[in-house]
Amino acid sequence: MSTPPSPSGAHPDRPPVRLGALVPLTRPGWVEAGRHVLAGLELAVDEVNETGGINGRPLELVVRDTAADPERAAAAVDELAGLGVAAVVGEYHSVVARAVAGRADALGVPFLCSSAVLDALVEERTEWVARVAPAQSRGWRIYADFLLAAGRGRIAVATQPSVYWATGTRVLREHLVARGGSVVELDATALTPEALCDALVDHDVTALLLLVGSPEPAVPIVRAVRGDRRLADLLIGAPAGQPEFAGWAEALGEDGAGIPFLRYLPEHLGPLGDRVRKELRERLGEAPSFVALEGWDTVTVLAALLRSHGTDRATIAGAWPHVTAEGTRGPIRFTHTPGIDLWQWTWAPIQVADRDPSAPEEFRVLHTG
């Protein structure tokens, strides 16, 4: 005789509802970000199962490491589809998430993206893909407004080849030039950090933005700029969020402070956000980034959808605009946003912050949008 299901938890004997989870857990992926996304996903799954699962069925994550490799990630979607997952969640790197979105769309597997912000995550309008992170164009325009308000209109960007960096550069240039600013591109793959410093002096810029990977080459560039007396008044910025993570502070110490970056948080979290952040700190053994909260929000909103609309893939894809869930950073609901060809949470809160030079383990909010 089977044991009746617990009213407060999922029935362990019932078949699980499986979710595929894609995260970068090995290099060259941003491992620290991947670990934070996964911690958020896993905590939310545990909480869903403690409160009845998906109508009595346990929720189960099937985790695959993308290692920042689009082809590997696309192959993982094929594998997960064959395993019968109801949906795919996660991913941090925009280029990888774009490959995941394309494959999920082709296979008819719902994909709820946690952290990738590239506007063109899909080639054309699709009902199969939704996202809780804000679009890059919105966040980077807010960052450009911060630069202008700070009197930093002559910008240099140190870049590496990537559609993500190229798109960010275009957003910055269009927004800044229209408002009297300027943007010069410097190839971080062709210039040593010292040569990059010389170019910054030659161009007489007021800010350098790091549109490069971390720790390499971002950390050596910061060290070189900080050590160059000619650039003592130069603002270093990192709109992609590198200083959010503890590894940044460990690698750079005081040199990593005072570098503004984008983070997708309200100025103050509510009771739910505070609770989740505390539990994530225990799980991670360090302060959780906003990326960990994105992971928690991803599973929470998808679980609400599964409970109300069922686990059929086509039904899930049709239900994005009909679900609302309380996330750590506010109520989450999906809409079609002009210029964005997927279901988008419009909008996650956005702030420009930095590590406080007087206390690098603390953050200061410099601008909100």
Structural descriptors:
369 residues, alpha/beta, four-stranded parallel beta sheet, 11 helices, 39% helix
Report what the structure shows.
The chain is built from eleven helices and 15 strands. It has helices at residues 31-50, 70-82, 94-107, 136-149, 163-177, 193-203, 218-226, 246-252, 271-284, 290-309, 313-319; strands at 17-23, 59-65, 87-90, 111-113, 129-131, 154-159, 182-187, 207-211, 235-237, 261-263, 324-327, 330-336, 343-345, 351-356, 359-368. An eight-stranded mixed sheet has the order 2-1-3-4-5-13-12-11, sandwiched between helices. Strands 7-6-8-9 form a four-stranded parallel sheet, with helices on both faces. Strands 10-14-15 form a three-stranded antiparallel sheet. The longest helix has 20 residues, at 31-50.
Write the layout of secondary structure elements.
Blueprint: E1 17-23, H1 31-50, E2 59-65, H2 70-82, E3 87-90, H3 94-107, E4 111-113, E5 129-131, H4 136-149, E6 154-159, H5 163-177, E7 182-187, H6 193-203, E8 207-211, H7 218-226, E9 235-237, H8 246-252, E10 261-263, H9 271-284, H10 290-309, H11 313-319, E11 324-327, E12 330-336, E13 343-345, E14 351-356, E15 359-368
Parallel strand pairs: 1-2, 1-3, 3-4, 4-5, 5-13, 6-7, 6-8, 8-9
Antiparallel strand pairs: 10-14, 11-12, 12-13, 14-15
Helix pairs in contact: 1-9, 1-10, 2-3, 4-5, 6-7
